[in-house]
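User: I'm curious what two different proteins look like when written out as structure tokens. Can you demonstrate?

Assistant: Sure. I'll show them one after the other, since each token string lines up with its own sequence. Here's the first protein:
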Amino acid sequence: MSFQIAIDGPVAAGKGTVAKLLAKRLNFLYVDTGATYRVAALLAKQAGIDWTNDDEVAACVDKAQIDMHNPSDAESDGRQTTVLVDGADVSWAIRTEDMGKGASAVAKLGKVRQVLVKKQQDIAASQDVVMEGRDITYKVLPNAQLKIYLTANEEKRAHRRHQELLVRGEDVEYETVLSDLKARDKQDSERAIDPLQIVEDAWVLDTSNLTIEQVVDQIEAKVNQLR
């Protein structure tokens, strides 16, 4: 049986960074579930299906074989994970701005989400994974050996997000970032489909006063203990 690490948490808690570093350290597969929504958007666009059509997008995605694996030496081009659709490498094709918009659109569709959860579970069934998102601990991998709710206080998360935006060259005020973050938290926790929540058996890990390395060290120690 594969070893599954499921990580949920609010925006700017460090889930992506922690999950990538942890997967690399443990030699697990890093699964960004957002990539599967980008795949759905790509498949719909290739088939000429509108991103708001739940039935048709879901049917299109259901027929496709979605696989992920750690990049081989020949695939060392900066990607975190190799994503295959029916055997074709789409790792970079799904990373465009257009596919990002499409992913946001199809992620609101209930039937598409159901299909993708099954695809995500299939990916995790045959290999050790670190999977992060907002519904992983209770919906995608409810039987994961380690469930983590990664969080930090609002001010710390807003500061991290603000720094990220400044590095990208975006001129934005900290107060604006903090306000947007609070609104996003409210939206994530109150949405009708798969709201952000803390499951009873999750390890709530507050990263407010921890470095990324300290967080990864703590999780790695926990994994070694469980294994």
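Here's a second, unrelated protein for contrast:
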Amino acid sequence: MNQSSLTSLNSACTKRRGLTRTRLTKAIITLLALPALLLPAASLTYILFKGAPALSFDFIFTSGEGQGFGHSSGIFPQLIGSLLLALGAVLVATPFALGTALYQQLLATPRQRRLLERFLNMLQGIPPIVFGLFGLIVFVHLMRWGVSLATGAVILAIVILPMLILNSVAALARIPHEYTAAAQSLGLSHGAVIWRVWLPQAWPGIATGLLLAIARALSETAPILFTATVFSGVTWPDSIFDPVTSLQTHIFYLAQEGGSTTAIEVAWGSAAVLITTVALFSLLARWLRRL
């Protein structure tokens, strides 16, 4: 066998070993990724399967008042309570989020930007139950707001604020620098640049963040458990300083009624409605992101 044949054989063996390693690497990565994909999908499928028998128009759009706190009828007050808390949180948090994002883009030094990013990442890592305890001490007791819609909205606003700020910063950062430079060359003030250039360009990204924030707020239970919701005795709040019921705490309450078949069925149905509501906001955010 000549030198040329040996070289070709070695090259072929090297390629074969490379292909084997590539396939092995792909197989390992796939095996590691599959549980992360299949387990949540299986959990969601199981919840929807268990909740489907309870779902009906009357179940979603009627009230369970006088029926054992929803054991045998509708969850409409709980659904509205969850939406009121989430929307209230977004209304409270949005001005602060936009203001912080604009400060970061217009006035902050590079060092301040780094410190702000680290601080926001730290805030995102704090367990929401800690904010719930803070709200219980400060707003419920010290400020005497009581367990109320207002207290829950403020606490949820604190929970979602870091995410809203980071999303707003990212939305503003995606605006082409040429747009800002052209506006400044025309002599526009900071306010004019913000209202005429930045916000019209960044609104899809900002709106996407708002929808994701609503979905996040709908997913939180611990903060509102101490600050906003009650298990019974309330259907509709008369003011923002009245407590509300919510799907999150409704599920928590019913899941403890292990001896009641009806309660468990309603809990599964409530969970299916909550997941579907969160998914709708997430899908709408995904659609806006493509604009």
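A detail about the second structure: Residues 57-289 form a domain with the MetI-like fold fold (CATH 1.10.3720.10).
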